[in-house]
Amino acid sequence: MQCPYCNAADTRVIDSRLAEEGTQVRRRRECERCKGRFTTFERAQLALPNILKRSGDPVVFEESKLQESFKRALYKRPVTQDARDHAVENVMRKLRQSGEREVPSRQVGEWVMEELRDLDHVAYVRFASIYRSFEDVNAFRDEIERLQRLPTAEQRKSQMQLIDEAAAEPEGAAVVEPPAPRASKKKKAR
Ligand SMILES: [Zn+2]
Q1: Residue-level pLDDT, tens digit, the chain, 190 residues
Q2: From the CA of 19, how far away is ligand 1's center (Å)?
Q3: Residue environment code for 64-87, b if the CB has 16+ CB neighbours within 10 A, otherwise e
Q4: What pTM was estimated for this model as a whole?
Q5: How far apart are CA 170 and CA 153, in angstroms?
Q6: Per-domain residue ranges of the chain
Q7: Shortest CA distance to 11 belongs to which of 25, 24, 1?
Q8: How far is residue 107's CA from residue 110's CA, in Å, rounded to a whole number?
Q9: Cα torsion for 116, 121, 83, 53, to the nearest 10°?
Q10: What is the CA(12)–ligand 1 centre distance, in A?
């Protein structure tokens, strides 16, 4: 680190200790050239990064705006508020873990889409069609077709319920055949 007195390129650490109950590292430094001493503090950057708009302007991250995006995309969709809050939390965790001072809004949009893709396909398409300008119409159609082949979290859950119910029925009474990959589970239940 540069010397704040004479601007020499490097300074030596002469003492290093934890401060503020271990949340900071306090270092005493000395300049080899002018012998000037100073202290630095190092702490984890936990504040959420600013959001870099498409225009290039940084704006302060607002949780309420993120919640609003999810609310709008999930309007009248069968997704609980708990699931929605969880998705908001996931995006905020990714923001925090980025360790960046600024994150492009486009990146946040991608994270929102990842969450929606798992929550509800209709909401995902709603959000994606506005947020992401798909390269061309074909790319958008490919994405929708791909999604139609994937079960949503809700569908996966109800599938599991069917399997559990089938497993609970007495032998031979199960009307619903569990899908092949789950066959071993049924065997175990007998
Ligand atoms: Zn110096």
Answers
A1: 899 999 999 899 999 998 877 778 899 999 999 999 999 988 776 678 999 988 889 999 988 899 999 999 999 999 999 999 999 989 999 998 888 889 998 899 989 999 999 999 889 988 888 766 554 555 666 777 777 777 766 677 776 666 666 665 554 444 454 555 544 444 444 5
A2: 25
A3: eebeebbeebbeeeebeeebbeeb
A4: 0.52
A5: 28
A6: 11-43, 50-152
A7: 1
A8: 5
A9: 20
A10: 10
Whose tokens are 């540069």? That residue is 2
What 8-state DSSP symbol labels residue 177?
P
Phi, psi angles (nearest 5°) of residue 151: -75, 145
What are residue 59's phi and psi, to 5 degrees?
-130, 155
> Residue 20 Cα, ligand 1 centroid: separation in angstroms?
28
